[in-house]
Description:
The structure is a homodimer of 456-residue chains.
Chain A: H1 4-11, H2 13-24, H3 36-52, E1 56-61, E2 68-73, E3 81-87, E4 107-109, E5 112-114, H4 122-139, E6 145-151, H5 159-166, E7 176-179, E8 191-196, E9 198-207, E10 213-214, H6 215-218, H7 225-233, H8 257-264, H9 270-278, H10 291-296, E11 300-305, E12 318-319, E13 322-331, H11 337-351, E14 357-366, E15 369-370, H12 376-389, E16 394-398, H13 403-412, E17 416-419, E18 434-436, H14 437-455
Parallel strand pairs in A: 3-6, 3-7, 7-17, 8-16
Antiparallel strand pairs in A: 1-2, 2-6, 4-5, 5-18, 8-15, 8-17, 9-13, 9-14, 10-12, 11-13
Helix pairs in contact in A: 1-4, 1-14, 2-4, 4-14, 5-13, 12-14
Amino acid sequence: MPSSAVSYAGQNHPRFLDELKSLLRIPSVSTLPEHKADCRRAAEMLMMELSHIGMENAHLIETDGHPLVYADWLHAPGKPTALVYGHYDVQPPDPLEEWLSPPFEPTERNGNVYARGAVDDKGQVWTQVKALESLLAADGSLPLNVRVLFEGEEEVGGEGIAAFVASRPPDLKADFALVSDTELFAPGLPTLCVGLRGMIYTEIEARGARTDLHSGQYGGAAPNPFVALAQILAQLKDEAGHILVPGFYDDIVPPSPEELAAWRNLPFDEEEYRMAEVGSRQLVGEPGYSVLERTWARPTLDIHGMPGGFIGAGAKTVIPAKATAKVSMRLVPGMTPTKSFGLYKSYVEKIAPPGVDVDVRLIHSGDACLVPVDNRYIQAATRALKEVWGRDTVFIRAGGSIPIVGDFARHLGLPSVMMGFGLPDDNLHAPNEKFNLQNFALGIQSLIRFLEEAGS
Amino acid sequence: MPSSAVSYAGQNHPRFLDELKSLLRIPSVSTLPEHKADCRRAAEMLMMELSHIGMENAHLIETDGHPLVYADWLHAPGKPTALVYGHYDVQPPDPLEEWLSPPFEPTERNGNVYARGAVDDKGQVWTQVKALESLLAADGSLPLNVRVLFEGEEEVGGEGIAAFVASRPPDLKADFALVSDTELFAPGLPTLCVGLRGMIYTEIEARGARTDLHSGQYGGAAPNPFVALAQILAQLKDEAGHILVPGFYDDIVPPSPEELAAWRNLPFDEEEYRMAEVGSRQLVGEPGYSVLERTWARPTLDIHGMPGGFIGAGAKTVIPAKATAKVSMRLVPGMTPTKSFGLYKSYVEKIAPPGVDVDVRLIHSGDACLVPVDNRYIQAATRALKEVWGRDTVFIRAGGSIPIVGDFARHLGLPSVMMGFGLPDDNLHAPNEKFNLQNFALGIQSLIRFLEEAGS
């Protein structure tokens, strides 16, 4: 016997989808100045819709970039308060020629709606808004207190919302956050993300000669910063993928045997992943750990770029005065950015070869995050998902970070429920982004039932 | 008792300098399209001057870029023929704000003339033209046959002259080349350059995943091409500067004990060189070899740039699908580009770590070159220099290559006499380029006496 709100959602599904398409038609590309007005239009549409469905106090909050959208409904005394988060901005649609239908003309094909932002994150924002509408329309009230906070800069670093959250405004007082910007592990498999890796993003700058020199004249006497960097970088990680910074692994809290056992039961094929997702000759990483362990629960080290010297076509025989390596490390629970960076910096300084000065800089960092699964909101979510999807929820982690989850925890003390309904092949940030229409419908039902369970 | 041509040069020195200043006022920057007409103006001025002083058959030779200037005087039957080479194009003058006087307003200060091109190479070209004028004016003839070939693309790769020389035109039939684009080892020390290193310039491209990936999601499983390159590059050369490619040193013909002994007598201080020229914390390179040996007579390996990934300010967490290292090696007599590249390519392919495909490409190469000092033109040059400078000539090598010297040898079978009158602190390619006025005068005298000796 579905709740009346779930029935309402089912009856109104065609309209919900039409409305989502209207939102998808707005090219709210946050990184492109020419779409600044479009971002505001998307924010205004959300603000008006929130007001229209019965949320109160709906307004825009100005930032240095695109505005935040806020609304609340706080008439459930004694019940917890949810902070509902999503983002209305999207990635640029390039390369345009690879889209089968135009990125800002939502098109249905094969049970999906195709458009930039379909799954990341407008479709998921709309599941939230429509779940709230269904509850308010069917019941005349919400089962708990709700604050909504949408941002328009998630794809460009989220500075506006970070500053707002860091100011700890009374308007964000809540008990937990509902973040809908993640995906199912596999089609039909209800999924909650309960762990994120942290990171330190660094630069190593090596300086040799005072100015750029000619390699004919000075090669064999002048230090070459790229050679020095290669020597340093090759000592950061061995060929098996083990990070060589002394003490780097000391504080790691490994996943529990139960969590590892659950991961082994996930429908995941490493060879399929290698061929279909990565497309490399072979995978790399620490022996003895599965791909899921390596990407979710082990620290890693990557080099992202090495600015300096000559990078044009052809040949220039320069020994550059300096060169830089952009190096990041992903951290896992137990590790802290401060300690990890300190160990790394000392080690790099120690192994730097003669002839160069090195400068090791921290560009930014984020804490790893782990949500205990015995948390009452996670429990409520699993009950709701079981009912809607007919299967037990899988708890997964993600290898990346969702900075806002860390901000909610650090500044507001809120645990996050990361419940999203994307699929691994939804082409996030790529051409032909899509959102599965059944997931859109079941997503709304799941959120309705989750809010009901969380308020019960 | 100076020759009458030398007397003529002395009497006319003020005019020669005024004329040089006219040439220096033409901003013939070969790399900048807006100076195309200026390059032609400089070529035409040289053509007219050659005709004016009594050279014959003066004309421009069109190329795909800036024109060549040709003239000859071939009325010394039974005497050898010299091919006189220099270039009229100059480097861009940036950064302008560092010039104490404008780069294209030649200014005398401290016994120097300051201007872009003063020493590289207009001042030296003018020593050649004025030596020819002095001989023709004082004697009514030249002591040997002379062909003049000036180019206007030396600073941008010299493609026009290379193609022309490769076509082996009858107009370039000669017995030796006189190349005036080098410098004295120290002030007052007559110098001939008799050796140049060769080179191979390569790219190593490493490819991992099919597309760029996010390091949060894939870090720990997807191969990182920069990590692979660092591992490869760190195995190319050890920290002492010894190249680790097997067989790389096998064919080296070392300098003779006499040449090494002569180098040890050169006025050269490694600590002064480190501080004043290189400006690095310490010098690098193979232990047991002096700086001059390391830069003139030992192969070296340098990395010039590593295109790929993210090189902007800040952080982007990309695992790039591919990355490239631009790597060159300087070669010394005995080594050949073909064999050296083959050894290097095999080694790189062998040490490439799992997960990546590597592609090792040769971008360009040049042979090392060694001029025997018992060559009659070198002997004639040393006699002339001794007379003008009052000191024995030092034979040095250069660590770089002068491609035209290789082209003259390969296509025309000509040995080159590399006789130039720059000084190590003349600011070639830098602000406040200068030419010492005494060297300008002694350079003209040296060339007059050299041509007389070569024809005797």
